[in-house]
Design goal:
Layout (H helix, E strand, L loop, with lengths): L1 H21 L1 E3 H7 L4 H13 L3 E4 L4 E4 L1 H8 L5 H18 L2 E8 L2 E8 L14 E3 L4 H7 L4 H9 L14 H14 L2 E4 L6 E9 L1 H4 L3 E8 L9 H18 L5
Antiparallel strand pairs: 1-3, 2-3, 4-5, 4-9, 5-6, 7-8, 8-9
Helix pairs in contact: 2-3, 5-10, 7-8
């Protein structure tokens, strides 16, 4: 009985994550994407919808996260202080540079985005709070990984399959460790079209586990055509100033 309960709970959590990553999904997308038997999927989705974790729209046939998911999420305080200190300063930096500013925390080998200040320009990065991206292929992810002990970073990198997202993605473990070593030494990391063609990012470490209870980093992301010959140095100064202001407000030292 206990095994069945655990399996059911695991399936429910997987469904919620699947829907959250896509904003909304149909029954067929959920059942097919998660390889769930249709009978099991019907019962699971009905249970999640009746309890408020999901909402079903009969007009569009789409499931989306419900009010219950929002209520529970609002009670999570793991990074609330950091976001509260960072958001107004990120907004100011986005207005100053005209580009998207993001704050992410490290979860395994993924960046989880916890705050975003959108670029005022109509052509800008499409991202959202809660989004997860692979750390090894993004600037903010490499800034996060650069704070780890090199042995820990190497263990994490070698434990996963590292796919290439563009022709510029670095996938070799040894090469990535060298990149992280350089990022650690210079205290910033870049993504030069490594995750998305035509998109560049520069990022700096913000908080360490020992000082703030979690690893976080902040980045400025922009279309390649809006970067100058001075990139990333022209963006790095204002980004570092903003990071320092956030660290001062939190009463912690720079990583």
């Amino acid at each position: 009985m206990s095994d069945a309960v655990v399996k059911s709970a695991d399936r429910a959590l997987v469904v919620l994550e699947f829907v959250a990553e896509r904003s909304a999904a149909t029954f067929s997308e959920i059942a097919g994407g998660l390889a769930l038997p249709r009978s099991s999927a019907h019962g699971l989705l009905n249970t999640l919808a009746s309890s408020g974790w999901l909402v079903f729209d009969p007009a569009t046939k789409l499931y989306s996260l419900g009010l219950r998911a929002w209520q529970v999420g609002q009670r999570y305080e793991g990074h609330r202080d950091i976001v509260a200190a960072a958001q107004p300063r990120m907004d100011a930096l986005a207005a100053q540079l005209g580009e998207t500013v993001q704050l992410a925390r490290l979860d395994g080998l993924e960046n989880v985005y916890i705050a975003i200040s959108d670029s005022p320009n109509p052509m800008r990065l499409a991202s959202s709070v809660g989004m997860r991206l692979p750390s090894y292929a993004t600037g903010i992810g490499k800034a996060l990984l650069s704070m780890l002990d090199p042995a820990d970073a190497g263990h994490r990198l070698r434990a996963i399959e590292r796919r290439a997202y563009t022709a510029h993605t670095v996938t070799g473990a040894d090469e990535l460790l060298a990149v992280l070593g350089a990022a650690r030494a210079q205290r910033f990391a870049v993504d030069d079209e490594e995750f998305t063609e035509g998109c560049r990012c520069v990022a700096v470490p913000l908080t360490r586990m020992d000082a703030a209870g979690l690893y976080t980093a902040m980045s400025v992301t922009m279309p390649t055509f809006r970067t100058t010959e001075a990139w990333p140095r022209d963006v790095l100064g204002p980004l570092r100033d903003t990071a320092a202001a956030i660290q001062d407000s939190l009463g912690i030292a720079a990583p």
